[in-house]
């Protein structure tokens, strides 16, 4: 029967904990990323719809106005378009920043045990830190 040294057992436990953490984080991150992508698509679609409605209402207003009234329609359309593009770009940047923050939080490595450290103490810390989360264990 082979004997395990304490260092070998510690390394194996660290490897398993690290593998467990990686699998848990990957499973937790995928739904967040999908929601963010759906949110970006929703924002883009709603902005396009809003812009189309604004342009149509402006065109209707110009068609219904008396011919003697002079309107600078070109500048108004450009202003509306530019403001919509700026707003959309700002919303997109905010969403991308939130995704980056989530990715940074997910990619942070787990706490490492110190050589010669107490593995049971580390396991208690991790159990306390992740208590209440449902995570599937893989063998």
Secondary-structure map with pairings?
Blueprint: H1 6-64, H2 73-107, H3 119-129
Helix pairs in contact: 1-2
Q: N-to-C SSE series?
A: HHH
Helix content: over 70%
Largest sheet: none
Query: Rounded to an integer, what's the Rg over CA atoms?
Result: 28 Å
Number of strands: 0
> What is the tally of helical segments?
3
Q: Label the structural class.
A: mainly alpha
User: What share of the residues does DSSP label as strand, in percent?
Assistant: under 5%
Shape label = rod-shaped
Overall pLDDT confidence: 77
Which blocks of ≥5 consecutive residues have pLDDT under 50?
none
Distance between the termini: 23 Å
Describe this protein's structure.
The protein is mostly helical and 139 residues long. Helices cover 76% and strands 0% of the residues. It contains three helices and no strands. Helix 1 runs antiparallel to helix 2.
Short account of what is shown:
The protein has 139 residues and is mainly α. It contains three helices and no strands. 76% of the residues lie in helices and 0% in strands.
What keywords describe this structure?
mainly alpha; about 140 residues
């Amino acid at each position: 029967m082979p004997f395990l040294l304490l260092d070998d057992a510690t390394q194996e436990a660290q490897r398993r904990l690290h593998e467990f953490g990686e699998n848990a984080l990957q499973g937790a991150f995928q739904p967040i990323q999908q929601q963010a992508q759906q949110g970006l698509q929703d924002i883009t679609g709603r902005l396009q719809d809003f812009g189309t409605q604004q342009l149509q209402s402006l065109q209707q207003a110009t068609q219904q106005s008396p011919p003697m009234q002079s309107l600078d329609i070109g500048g108004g359309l450009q202003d509306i378009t530019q403001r919509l593009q700026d707003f959309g770009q700002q919303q997109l940047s905010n969403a991308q920043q939130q995704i980056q923050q989530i990715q940074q939080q997910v990619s942070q490595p787990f706490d490492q045990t110190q050589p010669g450290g107490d593995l049971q103490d580390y396991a208690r810390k991790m159990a306390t830190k992740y208590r209440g989360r449902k995570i599937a264990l893989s063998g």
